[in-house]
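Researcher: Let's do a round of design. I'm pasting the structure tokens now; please hold your answer until I've finished.
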């Protein structure tokens, strides 16, 4: 008699792609009401930063650069991130350089990403066999954590970090198109949508190039049969074109890394293996920030591990290998948590692996891979055997705490002085943070405090050209012209430029030492005849001596060199008015 075939022990069977029937789910208007309420909470939580100014690298974005009004549409889109620049172009043309609309757009992208994350987690839970309240509630909780977590503040409140939120929007949209396909084998139409959205994500930020790896992992875990390569082979219609696009994206990324000096293999004083060792520790900081979000900082000044033993880097690696092994061993018993752990590592890999980046640790890098940690959290929640009321109460308490922490963090981001004071307090030996605090004091007119902060910066690092020039301006602001001139002369010894000599002329002029001032300004013209502020300072000297006709000529020369020079325009109007009055 023929024996029946032995049944393979493959763990719990996973459902097919089709969505299980709804069981007592919410109606559309209930979802709409919940979404509106959540949007209101988010606006309130991020309100302090919404009204804040541009910060740090925001002032180097195209809309803040001199002569921006003369840029054509194509000039705006030049570079490796045209989709990102397109949104800045739209912001500029709608609202100029008012910070509020830029912050609002960032917040809008963040909110859309939370909705997409809800759809993604809900779909994955359906694949794991969940339905009804458990599926919907845990997916909604994951979305709310993503939305209200304080570690997201940098990615939302910082205008320059729009690259994170906008790239994730296209990334999540492509992933959603993949998960919500109509059949196990993806069709050409759905493949085209995924590839198009993936291309848009790449044109916002290069780290999204890991999407194909995520799709392969997803097919391995959740296609039928689970934990096999059949699903991957079945979706060749997607993987062939996306491989071509990934190759093109890889060429683009390689070109960026070859040219950049803050990321890639040309970062001064940072070898790729040293960065790799450092990331073994940094990854655990990201996990800690997700679980216990305290001690947040804009600039961590994270110490490097020059060897595997330096700062205990090897312990960080062992700590990563152990859960990775557990995730593989228990992948059938805990598929969602196992999948989430590898999603986290894959999405973090572009910034936390072999490619050196000047800053080894930055909170914004958690924005993309947070979904992996949320999937682990979701798996824990769906297995937590407590009553529905207790589950809702516990999750609500978590969200309240996160909201309070995020509100407090946004208050720090509402003002540059508060932001850099917070950073310096957490990294007292961080010279860059002290430099930025000194500059923030100067911009706010707190000149004495600015001078002290620059002095403290000079004790932490060897003063370079930029530090000396800014330090001199702080001295000038604080009515210390002799000290200002001394710093400017030090800067000129390091780098002879029209900028530094024009400032030397300005300080001499304030002391009514006009011959010395004109000599310095002549040197500035010799070095760069197109530097417009030189002519403004010359015009000011003539105006101070009542020579308004000569002053008008100088101001016009300044505007000829730079039509956007507002000080020249204002001074010209005053000088012409004095001429008309016969002065």
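Researcher: That's everything. Go ahead.
Model: Designed sequence:
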């Amino acid at each position: 008699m023929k024996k029946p075939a032995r049944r393979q022990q493959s763990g719990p069977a996973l459902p097919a792609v089709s969505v299980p029937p709804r069981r007592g789910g919410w109606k559309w208007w209930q979802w709409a009401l919940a979404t509106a309420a959540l949007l209101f909470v988010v606006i309130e939580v991020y309100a302090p930063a919404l009204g804040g100014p541009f910060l740090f690298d925001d002032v180097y974005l195209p809309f803040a650069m001199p002569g921006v009004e003369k840029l054509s549409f194509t000039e705006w889109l030049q570079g490796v991130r045209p989709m990102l620049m397109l949104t800045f172009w739209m912001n500029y043309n709608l609202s100029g350089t008012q910070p509020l609309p830029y912050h609002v757009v960032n917040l809008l992208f963040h909110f859309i990403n939370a909705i997409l994350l809800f759809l993604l987690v809900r779909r994955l839970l359906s694949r794991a066999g969940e339905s009804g309240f458990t599926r919907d509630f845990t997916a909604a909780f994951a979305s709310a954590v993503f939305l209200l977590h304080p570690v997201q503040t940098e990615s939302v409140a910082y205008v320059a970090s729009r690259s994170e939120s906008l790239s994730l929007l296209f990334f999540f949209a492509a992933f959603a198109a993949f998960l919500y396909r109509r059949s196990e084998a993806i069709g050409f139409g759905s493949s085209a949508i995924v590839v198009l959205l993936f291309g848009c994500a790449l044109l916002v930020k290069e780290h999204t190039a890991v999407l194909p790896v995520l799709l392969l992992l997803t097919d391995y875990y959740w296609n039928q049969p689970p934990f096999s390569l059949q699903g991957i082979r079945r979706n060749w219609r997607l993987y062939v074109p996306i491989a071509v696009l990934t190759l093109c994206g890889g060429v683009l990324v390689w070109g960026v890394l070859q040219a950049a000096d803050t990321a890639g293999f040309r970062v001064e004083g940072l070898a790729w293996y040293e960065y790799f060792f450092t990331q073994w520790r940094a990854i655990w900081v990201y996990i800690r920030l997700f679980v216990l979000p305290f001690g947040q900082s804009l600039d961590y000044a994270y110490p490097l591990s020059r060897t595997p033993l330096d700062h205990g880097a090897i312990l960080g690696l062992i700590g990563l290998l152990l859960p990775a092994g557990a995730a593989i061993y228990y992948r059938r018993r805990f598929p969602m948590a196992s999948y989430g752990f590898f999603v986290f590592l894959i999405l973090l890999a572009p910034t936390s692996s072999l490619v050196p980046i000047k800053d080894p640790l930055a909170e914004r890098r958690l924005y993309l891979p947070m979904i992996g940690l949320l999937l682990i959290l979701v798996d824990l929640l769906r297995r937590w055997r407590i009553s529905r009321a207790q589950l809702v109460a516990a999750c609500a308490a978590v969200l309240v705490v996160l909201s309070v922490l995020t509100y407090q963090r946004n208050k720090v981001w509402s003002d540059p002085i508060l932001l850099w004071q917070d950073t310096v307090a957490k990294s007292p030996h961080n010279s860059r943070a002290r430099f930025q605090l000194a500059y923030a004091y100067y911009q706010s007119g707190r000149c004495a405090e600015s001078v002290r902060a620059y002095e403290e910066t000079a004790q932490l690092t060897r003063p370079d050209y930029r530090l000396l020039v800014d330090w001199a301006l702080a001295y000038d602001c604080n009515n210390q012209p002799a000290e200002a001139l001394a710093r400017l002369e030090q800067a000129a010894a390091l780098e002879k430029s029209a900028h530094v000599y024009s400032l030397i002329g300005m300080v001499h002029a304030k002391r009514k030492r006009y011959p010395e001032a004109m000599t310095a300004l002549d040197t500035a013209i010799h070095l760069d005849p197109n530097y417009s502020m030189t002519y403004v300072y010359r015009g000011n000297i003539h105006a101070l001596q009542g020579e308004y006709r000569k002053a008008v000529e100088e101001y016009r020369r300044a505007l000829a060199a730079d039509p956007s020079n507002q000080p020249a325009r204002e001074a010209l109007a005053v000088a012409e008015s004095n001429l008309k009055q016969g002065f």
